[in-house]
Amino acid sequence: MIDITMIKFAVLADCFHCPVKGEFAFNIDWLLLIDHQGDIAATYQPQHPEYADLLATFKRNDSLQVIPKGEYLLPGLVDLHCHAPQWPQAGKGLDLPLYDWLQNYTFPLENRYSDNDFAANVYQDVTKTLLANGTTSAVYFASIHRQSTELLAQTCLNVGQRAFVGKVNMDNSDQCPAYYCEPSVTQAIDDTELFVNNVFELAGNQSRLVHPVITPRFVPSCTSELLQQLGGLVQRYDLHMQTHCSESDWARDYSIQHYGVSDVTIYADMGLLNNKSILAHSIFLNQADIEKINQFKAGIGHCPLSNMYFANAAMPTRELLDHGVQIGLGSDIAGAPSPSIFRASFDAVSHSRVREEGVDIYLPASKRGTANARISFVEAFWMATVGGGQVLDAKVGLFEQGYHFDAIVIKANSAIGNLRIWPEFDSAKDILEKIITLAQPENVAKVWVQGNAVI
Ligand SMILES: [Zn+2]
């Protein structure tokens, strides 16, 4: 029998999660025990011999949270790629290609974050919005400004979101506007190292709910000296690293022209890759890139909606999953407008289906698309939860002993909202598919991060 004094509370719920890639489990009346650290201590099915006694004990102690029927417990969602300072730009400005979009819209906005008051306002809003959409773990690019990036890290702690926050590094004066460019490699590195230590030492961050992330924006915006020294920080502190990888024709070609090799090789050579590296997009990968990503146990943040606007091509998600590449999903605010990882899951499926069917009506159906390119809704949900956790090397995305209790409750059939479940017609698989495709913030009834109720 489990030691009850170790348990902070128990949850009784109908639960979905994906212990196996491509499959889901639906556990009715599951009992999850959460310890005082906010981790899952144990799970019990109703047929377990100790189930009834445990249930009675937690009811008696008033430490049982019962999730009503018609509501479902899911692992919290993981957003592997979100530009927090671009939140005011979400939903507009998608009319330009990547280079022009950065220069005309994004860099002027990001430069506003030298103003801490402006930053505080936006960062409070974006972190709360992501939580309201069910995102319990978020990986944020901030801006080049150390102080307001620390403010973002502090805001994540305050709202109770698990977060991976990076001060952006960009020092290539050929590519960055003069007003938004690090003055020197030395200053960029000193600032970044100070940022890393300050995040570790934030009041309330003893359990490392918020992690600093080394964040070279991408190859074109950084000099090779800066990339190299950032790689040194990754190695010295064993840190997470996030960047953009082979996102578009232009970005891919820039690396080939300037380094003669692909982004993945550049990042590996600079010491930037490890088992906690998040390579956003990663559209134009060759076989050697894929093998190198697997060799380092690095991972990809797939941002399907953003890819439609900026990537010039579609990610071969099916093939990457089949190659065992660690892959999760990203919103890519504001390269795409939606802060929802349910939406990213839906888009990942649609993206793969368009790729499978093809688009050119002048080709015969047999030659139009790429056979067997589709992914399933369950695979998309796996990426949104388990896959994201794997990329981060974090114990999130599953309801298993030892995992952090990061969870959301989805309420169907609420007065306002699109998610309708018809018990007579909907199987468990149908319900999960409907949640992925139709759930909105109004359906996210409760959110826990590390065992703390934050919504
Ligand atoms: Zn991005």
From TrEMBL:
Gene3D superfamilies: Metal-dependent hydrolases, Urease, subunit C, domain 1. This is Guanine deaminase. Pfam families: Amidohydro_1. It is an enzyme of class 3 (hydrolase). It catalyses: guanine + H2O + H(+) = xanthine + NH4(+). GO terms for biological process: guanine catabolic process. GO terms for molecular function: guanine deaminase activity; zinc ion binding. Catalyzes the hydrolytic deamination of guanine, producing xanthine and ammonia. Residues 72-454 form the Amidohydrolase-related domain. Keywords: Hydrolase, Metal-binding, Zinc. Its EC number is 3.5.4.3. Belongs to the metallo-dependent hydrolases superfamily. ATZ/TRZ family. SUPFAM superfamilies: Composite domain of metallo-dependent hydrolases (SSF51338), Metallo-dependent hydrolases (SSF51556). GO terms for cellular component: cytosol. It comes from Photobacterium aquimaris. Binds 1 zinc ion per subunit. Its cofactor is Zn(2+). The keyword Cell inner membrane does not apply. The keyword Protease does not apply. Pathway: Purine metabolism; guanine degradation; xanthine from guanine: step 1/1. It comes from the Bacteria.
